[in-house]
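Researcher: Let's try something more involved. This one mixes different molecule types, so please make sure each is placed in the same coordinate frame as the others.
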Amino acid sequence: GYQKIKVPADSDKITVNADLSLNVPNHPIIPYIEGDGIGVDITPVMLKVTDAAIEKAYGNKRSIAWMEIFCGEKSTKVYGPDEWMPEETLEALREYIIGIKGPLTTPVGGGIRSLNVALRQELDLYVCQRPVRWFKGVPSPVHCPEKTNMVIFRENSEDIYAGIEWQADSDDAKKVIRFLQEEMGVTKIRFPEGCGIGIKPVSKEGTQRLVRKAIQYAIDNDHPSVTLVHKGNIMKFTEGAFKDWGYELAAERFGAEPLDGGPWHVFTNPKTGNEIIVKDVIADAFLQQILMRPDEYSVIATLNLNGDYISDALAAEVGGIGIAPGANIGGSVAVFEATHGTAPKYAGQDKVNPGSLILSAEMMLRHMGWTEAADLVINGMQGAIEAKTVTYDFERLMPDATLLRCSEFGDAILKHM
Ligand code: NAD
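Model: All components are placed in one shared frame. Result:
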């Protein structure tokens, strides 16, 4: 039993099949973390919009039994001063498979670097999934933002983000440098004195579990291509291997064949009969192409650092930084989350844009297979923005817009659903 978590009665659990597909009952329990700072503003609006979309789509045949779980500042109030991430929060996410969270404060001092990073590591959520699409009316810095419609699968557990690095002049850094020079014959460290060192692990298993998720997503959602974005021309055995292992997985697991002699591959979507092309592009060229020919890309699979840059660049192209949703997904567990932080200066003012968390809930509904409800959330969001009834962050960029509070924007979404 749980200590502080109250499990809703008369509801069921989502379960996972051997092939990692989900069994979603009609009244699943879904844990949520309110989040710190503006979490108190945006999370209730997200719950309200999600419930309304489900009711509109399915009447009382389906509903979510929301179950509050705790992390961050709120957890320290519920469980005690040092309990930023109680063990039972992790247990609940493992047990109930799908969860959603608001932003979390990064504790200052103490052992925890970032609660988000800790959550990802504890639950081995190795995919960071970010859809990037434009909503008509959102101010954008490019001419044709409607041409950008992609879903990024960023590897979350490897690469130089794994945190394997040593500070310049530390004994450890010196030791690693000495090892590289003396045992590995490395002569190319330009300034061995005063030199920090970082190591970039990229494995076949880590790459292929990520690429597999990306290709499966393309199959499930009928997308025309999956692009492996890498810097393999320079880093052959990490970034280059990512590309090679990606193609290998496409061939071995999904039956892809080389296209015109390769390296691109192609296979038939078993669900729709449409073609899916698996291709690759060097990361710097990709950053040009997303400005010049964004409509040639749909699902993107990439390494951790590339994915960081690409996610932000693409979000900016569609004007979506304030409404960009995200998910962290593992073998079976998935945690959906707003991509922004806790914006403490606006906390409790009913002012900020709840769009990021609401669109994260939309991803969650789609992940559950509740696509009709997900589509209604998109309709509602599109309608509210097109009617120019928006929160302050959009209002100040849109001529003749009407300024709404956070909760009022939620109601505007309901009105246009
Ligand atoms: P932030 O995203 O919280 O805020 C930066 C600015 O973005 C805000 O001042 C505000 O102007 C704007 N903004 C953010 N969310 C908005 C919204 N929903 N609507 C309108 N405007 C919005 O970033 P920060 O100030 O660097 O970080 C604050 C705290 O959040 C830190 O403790 C940080 O560690 C944490 N953080 C958490 C997450 C997460 O939980 N996923 C992500 C980033 C930062």
